[in-house]
Amino acid sequence: MKISILGGGGTRTPLLLKGLLSLEEELELEELSFMDMDEQRLLLVKRVLDEIAKEGKGKLRLTYTQDIRESIREASFVICAIRVGGERLRIIDERVPLRFGVFGQETTGPGGFSMAVRTIPRVWEITNLLAEVNPKAWFINFTNPSGVVTQAILGYSSLKKVVGICDAPSSIHKVIAQFLNKKEEEVFTDYFGLNHFGWIKGVYVDGEDVLPSILELIKDLPDFERITRFPGEFSALIKMLPNPYLYYYYFKEEATKDLLRAERTRGEIVEEMNAKLFHSLREGSNPLSIYLDYIKEREASFMPGRLKGIALAEGEGYIDVALKVIKGLAKGDAEVAIVNTRNLTAISGLEEDDVVEVPTLFRKDFLRPLSAGKIPAESLAMLKQLKEYERLLIEGVATSSYSTLLHALTLNPWVPSYHIAKKILDAFIEEEQEYFPHPG
Which of 148, 145, 116, 109 is nearest to 421 (CA)? Predict the structure, then answer.
């Protein structure tokens, strides 16, 4: 089997390789092709990858290329993890909304909007090429904003063998299992929503829903609010555990004030860490040690505190989901993972072709989202608004329509008014004009 990794110079790529090595014999892996347009970055990450590869059986070939056709040809799976515009434009995504008192974040809100406008056309180019060169391959999308990008692929390309992956739900599952002192496979999290916009409405152990007990425990647990920023009583109020990104929706004012007080955005922190990593890889003699130090620093910067006894490594959620998906689709053993896929009938009240984030069953070359059952009316109303925003955003990109993009941004839950939406959009056009249509 051959697997292609687009964006192979990314900082999570070594973690992905480590995970794939654990399935080297089971999947009969023969080649991993790492493709990246940034040759220098790819060659520096190659130093780390070559060291990690020594842990394998020695039969797996690692190849490196800037030729996307070469990389995707004959691959069974194509993993897409690109960042159009790099960290520089991520920072602009975060900073522009703040000028107008609106929270900026790279995957949701106006920041995610801008990232989607830049990213979707490039992903369409890739998927159109894949449909021409290797239409039988499965396309696994890591590229953010994952849900919107996956929706754009399934709605506007001929590819149907597409899965979108985000680490948030699987990371929540891991934390819950550790909190309950259970193995991950002993716990089922009844999750529903969209990417970075979902809830856990049940946690099942031995057939019993233990979520009510969890909500009661965390209500008076100081560490819970310190780590998640959600007051324990809030989860008890909605009777669900919210995805951490829902903090930006339920607590917009607090989230915006926190970021306005901060000296640097998340993108600026990551940019500095990445620059330090690549400088050290260029100058240092022990690439694997340098990389592991980087991962520890990034992990600590993202989650400075933890619940006692609970640990989660940087990137661990992404890799575990990817391995489950690949193993299930390739081998046929039943696997269940929370991914972004077509709704079908999983969430009643949304359209069949809406991309949702739900537990999904994987078998050989087959997937089927599991039914979410009855969900709260308030959640469905929020999902419908965000889904309409996503549809208009993708339509605006497809038609290069300023007015449609403005309509979409006006519907974004983070944006308080039409006038603010217009100011933000016009500012993005000024800062990132090569990616945006102009008015008129």
Answer: 109
Q: For 54-85, where are the alpha helices, taking DSSP H only? A: 68-72
Q: Which CATH architecture has domain 2-164?
A: 3-Layer(aba) Sandwich (3.40)
Alpha helices in 230-346 (DSSP H): 232-238, 247-250, 252-261, 266-283, 287-302, 316-331
| Residues of each annotated binding site | 90, 144, 166, 196
Q: Which of 93, 190, 191, 245 is catalytic?
A: 245
Tell me which residue has tokens 């490594």: 313
- Binding site for Mn(2+), residues? 166, 196
> Full-prediction pTM beyond 0.90?
yes
Q: What is the rounded end-to-end Cα distance, in angstroms, of the chain?
A: 50
Catalytic option among 167, 190, 320, 354:
167
Q: What is the pLDDT of residues 364-381, one digit of tens each?
A: 999 999 999 999 999 999
Closest among 109, 91, 69 to 411, alpha carbons compared: 109
Per-domain boundaries in the chain: 2-164
245 is an active site residue: yes
Q: Which amino acid does the sequence have at 21? A: L
Q: Is 250 a catalytic residue?
A: no
Which pLDDT tens digit goes with each residue over 205-245?
A: 999 999 999 999 888 777 788 777 898 899 999 999 999 99
Give the separation between CA 218 and CA 172, rounded to whole angstroms: 14
